[in-house]
Amino acid sequence: MAYLVRSRINVMNDSVKSRQYQKIDRKGAYEGFSGFVEYDKQYHGMKEVVMDQKNLEATSKLEFQPSNDYGEFEIDSRFIDNISYLSGFIINGSGATDTKKQVFVSHGWDHLQIAQPLSSSKSYSNYVKMHEVQKATMSGDIYVFDGEEMVALVGSVKFKAIPRAVIDQLLSPLKGVASSSSRMAAIEDKLVKGSKPLKSKNAIIDDFLALIGEELGVEPSELQDDTTFADLGLDSLMSLSITGRLPEELDLEAIPSSLFTDFPTIGPMKAVIMQLTDTSTDETTTGTTEEEDPATADTDDTEMVEEIPLESAPSNSSFSEAMDGLLAIVCDEARLAIASLMGSEDPTGTTTPYSVNDDAKSSTTSSAPSSVNSASTPVLESIAKPDYDLEVQDISQFTRPATSIVLQGSLKTASKTLFFLPDGSGSATSYAALPRISPDLYVVGLSCLFMKTPSEYTTGIEGVASLYVSEIRRRQPEEEIEALFLIDSPCPINLQPLPSELLYFVDSLGLLGVQGSAPNWLIPHFEASIKNLADFMPYPVDSEEAPRTHIIWARDRLVSESDEKLFPRSNAEAKSVKFLLDGRQSLGTYGWEKLIGSENISVDFIEGNHFTMIREPKVNQLSTILDRIIGA
């Protein structure tokens, strides 16, 4: 096989003179990448590239940058990146893909073989031909040669197409997040320099249509007033993505997450956008506007080894353990919300029992506090803490992060942030029907990275909690937990697995899925969540440091005795079955006091069952309760 590939490299190099193939130098190659990622000079290993853009075939000459200043390695990770870049370049950097509309993101390789040590003192060549293996998925093998001898093989490199709008939303904060003080300094600087003209309503409508077109991959000219968003392929997750972008990109406030449900066609939607604008006429007016400075720091390789970084802030083991420990207790894929203060140099006005120690306070100008006072304090006696230290799972193996979507509010006006963790569906769309809670609250919904690939969900509860922590810290580097909300969430102590038969029964009632029917990945994700939960052993948080916690129970049974469909019951059924089918008839803590401490817990009821409590009209009660508790 090697000699066939080698001969193909020779043919491509020899055909450059006849212009059958295009040749570009190092500068041109990395400029091709620069539309979506910039590599540091030390990663510029491709000296020149010869490519067949149409057939997604390429070969390159490789000269690695010297590694003397970066330590000694058995295999320098930068060299592995260098030999792999060609696969991503021929798809994304050669012009073969319109990267304004979509970008192919690496999903790793099947195997990597390196027969001889790679050296910066040698010149190498490599070759790849990418091809489509399934819809929106490209694959290929990368062959690496030292002269005529093959010295490395990267087998079955895979890339999947992701809409550019989604990539921009995910990666825009990854180059670092400005602290609140730096954001305020930037705002004050802009105000001193002068005012900025506000856009007219017509201009905002144009921007809105451009945003819709970007998200859905259509031209704005195709968006006629009678066009329905469903016909354009808008799904619930995309609608949340758009409503999350509107406040920050169009400077609109009070955007309900149900916007596209309430107004399913272009014409009425444009009228709503017009009403939401702050300008009083269609003529341009002037005023002061506060613009966030998206402060960023360089990120490296998004392709083969590092791929998309999981967090922009530097990791600190002790702090991560404390945060992971709290989330792991409650992160059983049940409903969870965390209210926190916006990052500030000196947080005040909070009643949180989660106190940041002196070392942490002194580091608030960096990306994250250094630690939290939780490791050395005694725990509740009602359930023993394991005699081993909590080991935070290494999440570097995961090339996709947990993601999040803005559900309500704006960073410009909010004083607090509320993070919703996903329920068993794994999707932030579970909270799409939640009415606006408070005008000064920034609400973010997280989605599980295994949502549509539940077979890959093998991390355990601690592992997925670490991924959620990374995404929360990306959104808000300074962590100060003010309150924890448990929304009809069962206590995970000795919680037996929920049988799959019950999930299918619930689906038959039309209670799974946003539109009343579950997508094909939803029940498998529930099952994967249940499997991971079965292996989870919770331990308590010190009651003196646990956040104030508010439990919101669903009062009603899932089905009544008079309903036509009933699930078969037995005396030996799992506690989880009883929890889901039966309502909560008393204002109890149902086991959570063993993990958080009864003195930290308050309780509320909502009329409705486990599923209808987050749907209209019952969800209005949930919004009211959240507003009351957060504002208290």
TrEMBL record:
Superkingdom of source: Eukaryota
User: Which SUPFAM superfamilies does this one have?
Assistant: ACP-like, alpha/beta-Hydrolases
UniProt feature, compositional bias: Acidic residues = 289-301
Per the record, the GO terms for biological process are:
antibiotic biosynthetic process; monocarboxylic acid biosynthetic process; secondary metabolite biosynthetic process
Keyword annotations from UniProtKB, A to Z: Phosphopantetheine, Phosphoprotein
The segment annotated C-terminal hotdog fold runs over 21-168
Compositional bias per record (Low complexity), positions renumbered to this chain: 279-288, 362-377
Instruction: Please tell me whether the keyword DNA repair is annotated for this protein.
Output: no
Question: Could you tell me which residue ranges the Carrier domain spans?
Answer: 199-277
Task: Outline the extent of the PKS/mFAS DH domain.
Answer: 1-168
Q: Supply the name of the protein.
A: Uncharacterized protein
Q: Which organism is it from?
A: Penicillium nalgiovense
Task: Give one Pfam family, short name only.
Answer: PP-binding
Which segments does the entry list as coiled coil? none
Region of interest called N-terminal hotdog fold, as start-end residue ranges on this chain: 1-2
Cite the InterPro entries for this sequence: AB_hydrolase_fold (IPR029058), ACP-like_sf (IPR036736), PKS_dehydratase_sf (IPR042104), PKS_mFAS_DH (IPR049900), PP-bd_ACP (IPR009081), PT_fungal_PKS (IPR030918)
